[in-house]
Amino acid sequence: MADRLVPGRGALIKMTPKDKFFYPACLISKSKEKWTVKMWRGIKHENTGKILKGIPPSRMVDGLWQDAKRRRKTVLGKFARCHEVYEKESAENYLEDWKQHPFDTEIARALKPHYQVLEQLAQAQQSAEIPISDAPVLSLFQSNSQQKPEGQVSDSKAKVPAAAYFCGGLTLDDQARILNWIYTKFPDFNPVHLEVAAAHARTLLVAYRYQDEFLENQSQTDQETPLDQHYVLQKAWQRLVEFTGKTVDGKSKPRAADVDYEAVNILEEIMFDRTHEAGIAGNCQWGLDVAPLEDDWFPYNGPESQHNNLRDGTESDTTIFVMEQNQNLRLVQTITPMFKLKQQLTLAMRKGLPDLVQD
Questions:
Q1: Backbone dihedral region of 33: left (phi > 0), alpha (psi from -120 to 50 degrees) or beta?
Q2: Quick check: pTM over 0.70?
Q3: What's the pLDDT band for 323 if we cut at 50, 70, 90?
Q4: 29 secondary structure, DSSP code
Q5: Chain centroid to CA 118
Q6: What is the domain partition of the chain in residue ranges?
Q7: Which residue, among 241, 250, 110, 102, has the nearest Cα to 173 in the 3D structure?
Q8: Cβ(168)–Cβ(241) under 8 Å?
């Protein structure tokens, strides 16, 4: 196995000699037969995401592909799997959690003076005609209002997904705090309509932050704009649109590699492989001879369950025996189907039965 433990790969680590559970980590470097590792950010432990040094090979294993015997003796600590971390860290999920990001003084100062316009957008009343100069986001819908007076558009035909898309120049935290202000101030309004108000609120925050910069860079032609306020709003909306998908300062985002994620993701593919090639080792073997996984965790329902080459487990794969006081083996349960493994293991342990051993 030593030749499979190399820098950049994922491995399962027992953090101290007294620990029972193994957790995923990314291998960083090896010196004098001991490893420096970075623990996976999805583990439920005080060492989450931390770098640990001096880990000996005796407290490390790889994914143990096709090795049912060793898997049965290796108890996993509970951790968030890669697909769960990806979902949690996605922008959409972050913004849905707006209650955890209360608006601050800056947000309040930027939006409060424009409460009336934001309220009109949130209400989406057909009679509420708002000049595009007061809410540039409405320029997205101008083509839907050909019979409206020039420079005005009814927000009743707003295409919300387009408005909600633009967020250039703002961080995810900025966007979440804006949503907190909007949803707090207009709690009884239609959430679909609130998205248009939120898009305008993002424009207002950009205008508030960069007003001096916009006015300083105002060209001779731009100075013909009647009101500086409208000019600043136009420039703020322009930045919101043009910087979307880029860094906060408008630069192209480098294609950064999440080394830890990739390492653990590959490790998981090996650990939870249930194809015919994986053999018996792919049928819920982790910790089977020792104890339930941490917190009675059942990790066998990830993306691998959708593979089109799954091996059907047999009853003998997950048969559990216990050693009684008279040293006789007694069959506790033959577990099938596979998803019942967690419940049966938990039941056996709660009855006070000794260590589980393989037949």
A1: left
A2: no
A3: very low
A4: E
A5: 30
A6: 2-80+259-310, 97-242
A7: 102
A8: yes
User: What residues form DSSP beta bridges with 131?
Assistant: 152
| pLDDT tens profile 232-256 | 999 999 999 999 888 899 988 777 7
Q: Return d(Cα 61, Cα 12) in angstroms, integer.
A: 5
pLDDT of 357: 40
- Residue-wise pLDDT for 260-305, tens only, equals 999 999 999 999 999 999 999 998 999 999 999 999 999 998 888 7
Give percent above pLDDT 70 in the chain: 78
Quickly name the fold that domain 2-80+259-310 has.
Answer: SH3 type barrels. (2.30.30)
In this structure, are residues 303 and 83 in contact, taking their beta carbons and an 8 Å threshold? yes
Q: How far is CA 35 from the centre of its chain?
A: 28
Please name which of 9, 1, 85, 74 lies closest in space to residue 42, comparing C-alpha atoms: 85
Type and span of the H or E element at 349: helix 341-350
CB 79 within 8 A of CB 43: yes
How many residues in the chain? 359
**Chain mean pLDDT for the chain:** 81
| Terminal alpha carbon distance of the chain | 26
Strand partners, 121: none
Classify strands 329-334 and 356-357 as parallel, antiparallel or unpaired: unpaired
Q: Peptide bond before 337: cis, by omega within 30 degrees of 0?
A: yes
Per-residue model confidence (pLDDT) at position 28: 97
348 Cβ contact list (under 8 Å, min separation 6): 320, 322, 332, 333, 356
Cβ-proximal residues to 241 (8 Å cutoff; 6+ apart), any chain = 166, 168
Residue among 26, 22, 39 at smallest CA distance from 74: 22
Alpha-carbon span 186 to 123, nearest angstrom: 9
Distance separating alpha carbons of residues 126 and 292, to the nearest angstrom: 60
